[in-house]
Amino acid sequence: MKIAIISDVHANLEALTACLKKIDELGADKIICLGDLVDYCAEPNECIELIKNNCDVVVMGNHDEAQFEYDMPEGFSNHARISSIHTRSVIMPEYIEYFKSLPRVYKYENLLFVHGSPQAPEDYRYVLTTEAAEQNFRAFDENICFIGHSHKPLIFEETKSGVQIVTGEYPKIGQRYLINVGSVGQPRDGDPRLSFGLFDVNNWKYENIRVEYDTQIASNKIKNEGLPLYLAERIINGV
User: Fold this and answer.
1) What is the third-level CATH fold of 2-237?
2) If you placed Cys at 42, which of 62, 65, 115, 221 could pair as Cys (CB 3.0 to 4.6 Å)?
3) The pTM is what?
């Protein structure tokens, strides 16, 4: 069985549409979304509806929770706070109730899925260093934990000598991993192509998939929506 893991769509309809098309081409049997459906880009309602109709499981992200916990955006960056408040003005009421129903974590066989970190799902912490990853490995028992939140695809491997960042053919059977699948709607690793993960459960094989989409159309929509210009520019450059 193949599981597609997507995260951080952030209201980017062009990216999400291209992502779902690629997932269909790859023959995924299940789609799991790690949250952050809204903010930053221009079409939150359309993206929520697509995710509801296409994803088998969706967990809550901090930008989703901020749509009903109004104090949360005060801790965001300025651009994130502005976009979150804007989303609040356009999102359909039924989607707020949908967000309230989402779980913070999801478990499937020997796999764990969470938006930010398994150590404190409700705090939405970043896992970007081996030190942070080492702390998080102590917080779960599954062989693999899939995460998003940072918008940067990364694979952390736990070994007897410590935690290391790895690339190439992973995971290895018998080892434990923290895998960040990157972002569909706003990549921040210098590559503007959308990012998601594909995990073959039967063959125990993970791939980070990158797909080009029309960033210019998505960028223009952000400008037309009256959101900060920086948000329109960053998806062009993948930062």
Assistant:
1) Purple Acid Phosphatase; chain A, domain 2 (3.60.21)
2) 221
3) 0.96
